[in-house]
Amino acid sequence: MGNGLLKDIWVLSKRSVLTTLRSPFSFIPNLLISTFFLLVYDSGLSGISQLPAFEGANYLAFILPVSVVSAAIGGAGGAGQGIVKDIENGFFSRLLLTPASRLSIVLGPIIAGMLQLFVQTILILIVAFLMGLEVATGFLGVLVVLLLAVGWGLAFAGYSAGIALKTKNAQAAQAGTLIFFPLIFLSTTFVPYELIESSWLKVAATINPTTYIFESMRTVLIDGWKFWGIAKGIIAITIACAITITFAAVSAKKAVSRG
Question: Which residues touch 180 (CB under 8 Å, ≥6 apart)?
Fold first, then answer.
């Protein structure tokens, strides 16, 4: 049974990846926007890294996680959009008539979205290195950034898939993903926590899980191997994934019962 599940996940993930490759304009804009963020923020705001709170950190390394996380949020929407398309063209209903595992029907698009995000993050990192990025923890640190990005993308992909299964509407699935973009800016987006002056924004940054993703990535990029700084992001990702994947699974179960 385990082998059957893995085979189903492989087949449906492969199909989702091939579908994405046939429509490159579905992910290229997100990549370009994330790269644009990196170029503009580094060029326009790098001067503030001279403030004492930055402790001499390179601003490119500080702002890079913003670009990566924005790609994760934008790319995660692909999982929901793929499911909605399958529902609209009748493929989802036909798939329910097959012996394919119900879990694989949900995980296939989600895993495909993670793979898409993995490639996007690599491309963004390449651009950052061409701009002069230096990573305090070397190659292993780059791998940690990739894993954090993919993990955060998994959390958003689970949410996107859940919304798609619940609403069966492309616009609703897209809107449900876009509401998370404010999380990027209600955080330590441009400056360290110590430099945030507004009390309400400090509260928002404290309860915002994106803050801890930023902190984990910045730890490996700037500070080195500091356990707690990295662990905060991993904990935030684990909790978020548990919630969103459960949400997707419950939505899938209801969709199957209705179908």
Answer: 73, 156, 159
pLDDT per 10-residue tile (average), the chain, 259 residues: 69 75 68 84 74 74 89 70 75 74 75 80 91 91 92 84 76 69 83 84 90 94 91 94 85 67
**35 phi, psi to nearest 5 deg:** -70, -40
Q: What is the 3-state secondary structure (H, E, C) of 71-121?
A: HHHHHHHHHHHHHHHHHHCCHHHHHHCCCCCHHHHHHHHHHHHHHHHHHHH
Cβ within 8 Å of residue 176, ≥6 positions away: 80, 159, 160, 163, 167
Tell me how far CA of residue 122 lies from CA of 15, 57, 67, 188, in angstroms: 22, 22, 12, 23
CA pair distance 184, 239, nearest whole angstrom: 18
Could you write out the DSSP letters of every residue in the chain?
-HHHHHHHHHHHHHHHHHHHHH-GGGTHHHHHHHHHHHHHHHHHHGGGGGSGGGTT--HHHHHHHHHHHHHHHHHHHHHHHHHHHHHHTTHHHHHHTSS--HHHHHHHHHHHHHHHHHHHHHHHHHHHHHTT---TTHHHHHHHHHHHHHHHHHHHHHHHHHHHHHH--HHHHHHHHHTTTHHHHSSSSSS-GGG---HHHHHHHHH-HHHHHHHHHHIIIII---HHHHHHHHHHHHHHHHHHHHHHHHHHHHHHHH-
| pTM for this predicted structure | 0.85
Torsion angle, alpha carbons of 182, 186, 188, 189, to 10 = 30
